[in-house]
Write a structure and sequence with these properties.
Distance between the termini of chain A: 19 Å
Largest sheet of chain A: 5 strands, antiparallel
Largest interface: A-B, 67 and 63 residues
Number of strands of chain A: 5
Largest sheet of chain B: 5 strands, antiparallel
Number of strands of chain B: 7
Radius of gyration of chain A: 17 Å
Oligomer: heterodimer
Structural class of chain A: alpha+beta
Strand order of the largest sheet of chain A: 1-2-3-4-5
Shape of chain B: globular
Strand content of chain A: 15-25%
Mean pLDDT of chain A: 78
Order of helices and strands of chain A: HHHHHEEEEEH
Mean pLDDT of chain B: 78
Low-confidence stretches of chain A: 23-29, 206-215
Chain lengths: 215, 371
């Protein structure tokens, strides 16, 4: 259980590490290699996180919005939404799909941006990449407490750029994990129920989960 | 009546009961492993079809146990872990973690054998011997650091899966967390190979104390993970159930551990590329430079040389674990090649000397400045 939870947590950190970096370093070449995109991205994020000018432990407002912009430009949220709603996607109207993409993106950003603040110097090592047609996978590892956790990124080409559509930590795929939850919620509470739950998560009325307990 | 016999008989009957449960619901099992076992990473566009789900008829009970574990963590494990980590430095706690991990080596050795992975079984045996002796009863992990022997994690649950046993129903145990029928049988079987079981049999309090201590130690190294996990999910119970399924499937197929292989293969690939053009031979391991690029820094600290690429890689891994950027230079001589493992040291000689000093103190006595 611990390994799995650890994996999920790292997933969130990496998720955002990726996001920040990818945006800042888009070059003129449309087909920049996925592995070097991600590598540069991670470096950029680490640089931002370790920026000594940032005195407070929490990211300032300006950095937060910078990161949010970067995230929007480099993760393919539409693709992720399609894959997490899976078989329920086609049944939704175009308007509902738009709304879902927006909400889901917001949830991911809000939830994970907190985690990125907890980065404390762990090393990221990139191993290799594999490209098959319009898809790619980048294998990397996250080194914490002398234990390396495998973290893989799946990308596909969207409007001439490699965009991330899934992150896999120790074999657990982010998209798959969300998909199971959404599937179960959809079957019991339908689409409106799912949207309500997403709303609740983004704006918790009275949070019952001790997410801010100091670590 | 002999108490020892009675106790053994109870264990045995519990084990038999589980095996009976397992086989009596056999039809449930034979599906899961065959479905997407051979799927490639890029064959994931079938998400619009029906999703493979976990059989969870005991969901209400599982949710109750999940809730129990959740409260147990926040009310007992986490506070204890925080106090514990106040008194014990992280390094020490990592040693404790390695110690307990080393104790369960027999589990990994036997299960690698049962799955026919003779080489991995040998690696785990070597790890156990090295870590128990050089690593001072397992407190350190020189097998990984010095010899590059990575963990080959196998257990009875994975072995059963390799033999074709399906996972069965999902069970969330109080205290132990998520599992399924097959993995639970696996855990019971593996317990016969763990010294902690025999300690518990001899002295219950000590055994349970050791187990709890190991758990608190692990928790202290990963505080925050569970909270983040909960914060990131709409339904933590479902998220954990699915994550457990994916995690186990990945371990069974050994794809999670393959990254170690990838890094080795990548290394050899690049070294071969560099060998063809020795004057440009630069390969950055865990660093910022791409192979084939001219060196950026004026000075480097040469940490060691190696003729065997594996030894060079071990040195690189050691440096990587110290978060040092490394550059490998391939020197081609008439009848042989060798590798110089270097750390970039900037453009100033004084700064380079400082780095050299630092590396010498960090355990690389042969480090010296080169340019």
């Amino acid at each position: 259980m611990k390994n799995v939870v650890k994996g999920i947590r790292l997933l969130t950190v990496i998720h955002f590490l990726l996001m920040v970096v990818l945006v800042g370093s888009v070059s003129a070449s449309a087909q920049e290699e996925p592995i070097s995109r991600i590598e540069k991205a991670v470096e950029e994020i680490i640089r931002i996180l370790e920026d000594k000018k940032q005195a407070a432990p929490a990211l300032g407002e300006e950095k937060r919005s910078q990161i949010m912009d970067i995230v929007e430009k480099h993760f393919d949220f539409r693709e992720m939404s399609k894959r997490t709603l899976a078989r329920h996607w086609k049944a939704r109207t175009a308007d509902e799909q738009e709304q879902f993409v927006k909400k889901f993106a917001k949830l991911l950003k809000e939830t994970y941006i907190k985690k990125i603040e907890n980065y404390s110097g762990e090393k990221v090592i990139f191993h290799k990449q594999d490209i098959e047609g319009n898809k790619a996978i980048v294998y990397s590892g996250f080194n914490r407490n002398n234990v390396e956790t495998p973290v893989n990124y799946k990308l596909l080409i969207s409007s001439d750029q490699w965009m991330i559509y899934d992150v896999i930590i120790e074999g657990v795929s982010l998209v798959r994990n969300w998909r199971t939850q959404f599937d179960s919620i959809m079957s019991k509470e339908k689409f409106s129920g799912l949207m309500a739950r997403l709303d609740e998560k983004i704006n918790p009325a009275g949070s019952d989960e001790p997410t801010d307990q100091d670590k | 009546m002999n108490r020892g016999f009675l106790r053994k008989a109870r264990w045995l009957s519990a084990l038999l009961a589980f095996i009976f449960l397992l086989f009596s619901t056999l039809p449930l099992y034979c599906q899961e492993n065959t479905s997407t076992a051979g799927a490639k990473w890029y064959e994931d566009d079938d998400y619009l079809e029906e999703e493979e789900t976990v059989s969870d008829p005991l969901e209400p009970m599982n949710r109750a146990f999940f809730y129990f574990n959740d409260k147990l963590y926040f009310w007992m494990v986490k506070p204890a872990a925080r106090v514990y980590s106040y008194f014990l430095a992280e390094d020490v706690r990592m040693c404790v973690r390695d110690f307990f991990h080393n104790l369960t080596a027999p589990v990994r050795i036997v299960n690698n054998l049962l799955q026919g992975k003779l080489k991995n079984s040998g690696i785990e045996t070597a790890r156990f011997v090295i870590n128990s002796t050089v690593g001072i009863v397992g407190l350190a992990d020189p097998a990984q650091r010095e010899f590059g022997l990575a963990i080959k994690d196998e257990d009875l649950g994975q072995t059963l899966a390799v033999y074709g046993v399906g996972s069965g129903i999902y069970i969330c145990w109080p205290f132990f967390g998520p599992s399924n029928l097959r993995d639970t049988v696996g855990l019971i079987g593996d317990s016969f190979l763990s010294p902690l079981t025999y300690l518990t049999a001899a002295d219950t309090a000590a055994g349970i104390g050791a187990k709890a201590g190991s758990h608190i130690n692990d928790a202290s190294l990963t505080i925050g993970d569970y909270e983040d996990f909960k914060a990131a999910s709409l339904d933590p119970y479902l998220a954990l159930r699915d994550a457990y399924r994916q995690y186990r499937k990945n371990k069974i197929n050994d794809s999670a551990t393959d990254n170690n292989l990838y890094s080795r293969n990548v290394w050899h690939y690049y070294v071969e590329k560099c060998r063809q053009k020795p004057e440009q031979a630069v390969f950055a391991a865990a660093g910022k430079q791409s192979p084939g690029q001219p060196l950026k820094d004026l000075f480097h600290i040469q940490v060691g040389t190696a003729i065997d690429p594996r030894n060079a890689q071990k040195l690189c891994l050691r440096l990587a674990s110290l978060r040092e950027e490394t550059v490998v230079k391939v020197y081609d001589r008439e009848s042989y090649s060798f590798y110089g493992i270097q750390v970039p040291a900037g453009d100033s000689f004084e700064a380079a000397k400082e780095i050299e000093q630092r590396l010498v103190e960090a355990g690389f006595p042969e480090a010296h400045v080169v340019n």
